[in-house]
Amino acid sequence: MSKKKVVIGMSGGVDSSVSAWLLKEQGYEVIGLFMKNWEDDDDSEYCSTREDWIDAVSVADVVGVDIEAVNFASEYKDRVFAEFLREYQAGRTPNPDVLCNAEIKFKAFLDHAMKLGADYIATGHYARVREMNGQFQLLKAMDASKDQSYFLHRLNQQQLANTLFPLGEIHKTEVRKIAEQLQLPNAKKKDSTGICFIGERPFREFLNRYLSYKPGDIQTPEGEIIGQHVGLSFYTLGQRKGIGIGGIKSHQNADGSSDAWYVAKKDVTANTLYAVQGHDHPWLLSESLEAGQVSWVAGHAPQAGDLSAKTRYRQPDVACEFNGDEQRFSLAFPQAQWAVTPGQSAVLYDGDVCLGGGIIDVAARAHTES
């Protein structure tokens, strides 16, 4: 019987490298695919495409798999980057990794792999797939600190049916250990932290090239002007550093100290940025949210009721009451949530099962005693 063929996305990082080895150990015929998603100035100090390609080829040689490079830069620009810029221009804060997974890694890449005769695709994401009664479920990874189901919540039944996540059952420490035992050339390579196409470059400098922006007032909720912003696109809700109001006279606490300033609201129409003092200011707390651009893993919305949610990556799951359908949903939180940000994804969970989610449109501030 011929082996099942798996095409794995190899980025030059340690996770996808160990994934390729694990698949080979499990008896699959493995082919590596290196995705080039960005071409503008990709030879600069911040963009390491060439270095990553060399690492991926070196690993493929050690593991004993063939590897090819495929260029998805035009699809990326059309499907991910254009949307990213649209959202920023509208004053929201998008998450391009969510879009990149839905549109590139599990669409353009999946299509390409199927043309190569693949039975499955695989990636180095930390997540799991489980089949139950003919339905595919997306589950959190066993290593809770690395779980990436949040970024994968837009995957559908067909995509999950064709996807393997070799790292779903193991911990990151184990992955590093395997890489060292195999003497992979990238065993000690640092994990990339930047947005895929921005890399580690200064964010504001990057956006400057693509967005039109105009400076405007920074105000307090009471309407007092306390500074000038450089363009609303460059700020995100809950931001504390780099607002540019450091020298402002602040409300003093009883002990003479003063609370930090935070970005609390962007008024795009008036081109005004609102800043508040104190981490727990009411303007930073939301009791509910509404989301659109909805995607459900099962193909249909869960039943209304109690679930848990993340409104940003790296946040612990929080209890919520869900109401919604295939187009929109709302979440109500028993405990007010901090800096719920339009443009980010609200992702729903039932225990370890990721149900799907949507893009936050609006968050309702917590009611406080006047």
Automatic annotation (TrEMBL):
Superkingdom in the source lineage: Bacteria
Keywords: ATP-binding, Cytoplasm, Disulfide bond, Nucleotide-binding, RNA-binding, Transferase, tRNA processing, tRNA-binding
PANTHER family attached to this UniProt entry: MITOCHONDRIAL TRNA-SPECIFIC 2-THIOURIDYLASE 1, TRNA 5-METHYLAMINOMETHYL-2-THIOURIDYLATE -METHYLTRANSFERASE
Catalytic site: C100 (nucleophile), C196 (cysteine persulfide intermediate)
tRNA-specific 2-thiouridylase MnmA-like central domain ranges (all copies): 205-275
UniProt GO MF annotations: tRNA-uridine 2-sulfurtransferase activity
Record's subcellular location: Cytoplasm
Name of the protein this chain belongs to: tRNA-specific 2-thiouridylase MnmA
Enzyme class: transferase
Residues the record lists as binding ATP: G9, M10, S11, G12, G13, V14, D15, S16, M35, G124
Catalytic activity of the protein: S-sulfanyl-L-cysteinyl-[protein] + uridine(34) in tRNA + AH2 + ATP = 2-thiouridine(34) in tRNA + L-cysteinyl-[protein] + A + AMP + diphosphate + H(+)
Region (Interaction with target base in tRNA) residue spans: 95-97
Residue ranges constituting the tRNA-specific 2-thiouridylase MnmA-like C-terminal domain according to the UniProt record: 287-360
Function: Catalyzes the 2-thiolation of uridine at the wobble position (U34) of tRNA, leading to the formation of s(2)U34.
UniProt organism field: Undibacterium hunanense
Site feature (Interaction with tRNA) residues: H125, Q344
Principal subcellular localisation of the protein: cytoplasm
Gene name in the database record: mnmA
Enzyme Commission no: 2.8.1.13
Residue ranges of the region described as Interaction with tRNA: 146-148, 312-313
Keyword Electron transport: no
